Amino acid sequence: MKASVLEVDQLTKKYPPSKKGEAEFIAVNKISFVLKQGEILGLLGPNGAGKSTTIQMLVGNLTPTFGTIEYFNEDFATHRTEILDHVTFASTYIKMPWRLSVLENLWVYGLLYGLRREVFVRRAQHLLEFFNVWEQKDKTLNQLSAGQITRVMLAKAFIPHPKIVLLDEPTASLDPEMAHEVRQFVLRQQKEFGTSILYTSHNMDEVANVCDRVIFLKSGKIVAEDTPEKLAQSVSLTRMRLILKDGLKRTARFAKEQGFSSNIDGREIVINIEESLIAGFLACLADAKIEYTQISIDKPTLEDYFINQAKKESNV
Amino acid sequence: MRHLYPLRRDFDLLSDMLYWPLVDTLIWGITGRWLTEESSIPRLVTAILTGLVLWNVIWRSQSEVGRNLMDEIWNNNLSNLFSTPLKISEWLTAVIGLSFIKTTVTLVVIIPAIFILYSVNILELGLWLIPFFFLCSMTGWWVGLISSGVVLRYGPKVQTIIWALPGILLPFSAIYFPVDKLPEVIKQISMMVPTTYVLESMRAAVGGAPIDPTYLLISLGLNILYLTLAGWFFIRSFAYSKNLGLDRFL
Questions:
Q1: Which of A144, A228, A286, B47 sits at a 20 to 30 Å CA gap from B225?
Q2: pTM beyond 0.90, yes or no
Q3: In terms of C-beta distances under 8 Å and separation of at least 24 residues, what long-range contacts does A182-190 make, across chains too?
Q4: Do A94 and B246 touch (CB under 8 A)?
Q5: pLDDT by residue (tens digit) across A59-82?
């Protein structure tokens, strides 16, 4: 069994009320989880779930109200500097000095992680070439596009060869091709160097492809923790799409009588149904002389799980 | 490094370091000359221009602490910076070191400029300049720590304090005139300002009178006291800011 490199126990962040009479705001509420060596752990949740607050506490930019963070079995509160030598962070929303060139920015960070110049030059060239921004190395950051800045930020996070990387929506401003390259890069870092990665993203396909395990946060609490596949499977409803010759309204009525929700789009009807009941439902349609010309069955995905959880939240 | 690289391509930073000190030198030199012609005060222009040089030391020293913090905030870089192994004490040491470098550059330009334009040789003050510069730098550092601490506590909406707070020192330090010309109430307050003792000593030296070392010791004592209190306030404000999250400056 792989050793854990990060252990979070009962981590809580409360903000005092902004006005008298208001209640305090609990952004993160007693969450506990571990990140294992060489694991990519996804942190998912709707806006305001507490993902960024958690990451900010994990890099030491926000003091927890309660709970402990341990990296490599050392308390983060008392061993911050030694720990951060091996833990890096990149976020789409945090920038670097715009008057410095790409290489100058990376060199400043290289110095903070104690890199020697020749090691820095080799790694910077390798990373910037990989992220396709080597030709921009002498440009200042205000001359780059948002996507290029994000790639420089990723280079910054990986340049010290960290043991743990915290990535906050790393592909948010990238085009699909570069986002794919970044995902491949992240997976290669995990495979080749055993880097452990905590990953937040709103792209569910990305999380399903990259993460070994996912933690789902809602209103500051962990509501689920499992592999992306198992979380998706926990959504029992499958989407069955039928294109019918006729009997569209009768089919919708029939689905409703059976307790399944449906919606009609042109000649297509989409029925949300449990996989095990599909055969019986189709047999009933045949009995009712309703014929379909096309059928497709979409298994539940992580996105379905996400939407399902978000709906639960809005219904509360 | 992070604050030295932009100097090569940023006129804002260069103007702060060289352009405005030179403009001040020109204006105050001419004013001093005119006043010398109209009054019987000996070596008035020397006293005013030496006051100006010492003011530049105070301004540069405080400005580097406050301005560099603001630069990180304006660049959305504060969260990045403090998610590295960098300690706040290391950041402060670097910023103070940078203030020393930039102050030196400013002095290297304006001291010869004053000599060329007005034939005033500030280096005549000899080794006394070392404690004068050092004590003025110390004052700049604690003023910078206070204004930065206020920004960390209340956010960028109060950033103007970085430029406004040192202005308070101008009248109380008696930069361009003797302290006994101040109204009595202000004089009492100015006795609690370390730079008052430095500038009085400087005027004594310019006038050919002996310098009383007690004045400089009082200035040192006050500076140590204020620097300790300002350092404590800054560290507390940083902790307060981390309690609310450094990402609130994004």
A1: B47
A2: no
A3: A182/A131, A182/A151, A182/A154, A183/A209, A183/A210, A185/A130, A185/A131, A185/A154, A186/A40, A186/A210, A187/A40, A189/A158, A189/A165, A190/A38, A190/A39, A190/A40
A4: no
A5: 999 999 999 999 999 999 999 999
